[in-house]
Amino acid sequence: MIVRTLEECQNSERRVVSETWESVRMLLKDDKMGFSFHITTIYEGTETHIHYKNHLESVYCMSGEGEIEVVGGETYPIKPGTLYILDKNDEHYLRAYTNKEMVMACVFNPPITGNEVHDENGVYPLVD
């Protein structure tokens, strides 16, 4: 059994910060669960270009508003209660509107291995 609090993870190497977001990695590959679980905050008024080569990603918006634009495709609004799922290589832009940061729960399969290191050539243990 793994029991962790958001607070203890925020005060450890599991908290990763960039110019446009910060993420607290509650579960990582070393936890041997087959997926990673993060609480990610997208800073208000920012845009982040994201392109994972080989991941299934499920993201649930808990607070704030913004949008996701799939490169070469559609743009979708995001608000609390919105779930979006990316399949393997959906290059996209994630934008938080200027009125409030977005806080999201994120699940990656295969799991993220550390600060911002992805197991890009891994298998999909939840799918295989």
From TrEMBL:
Keywords: Lyase. Gene3D superfamilies: Jelly Rolls (2.60.120.10). Pathway: Amine and polyamine biosynthesis; ectoine biosynthesis; L-ectoine from L-aspartate 4-semialdehyde: step 3/3. It comes from the Bacteria. CDD domains: cupin_EctC. It is an enzyme of class 4 (lyase). GO terms for molecular function: ectoine synthase activity. Its EC number is 4.2.1.108. One of its GO terms (biological process) is ectoine biosynthetic process. InterPro entries: Ectoine_synth, RmlC-like_jellyroll, RmlC_Cupin_sf. It catalyses: (2S)-4-acetamido-2-aminobutanoate = L-ectoine + H2O. Belongs to the ectoine synthase family. Catalyzes the circularization of gamma-N-acetyl-alpha,gamma-diaminobutyric acid (ADABA) to ectoine (1,4,5,6-tetrahydro-2-methyl-4-pyrimidine carboxylic acid), which is an excellent osmoprotectant. This is L-ectoine synthase.
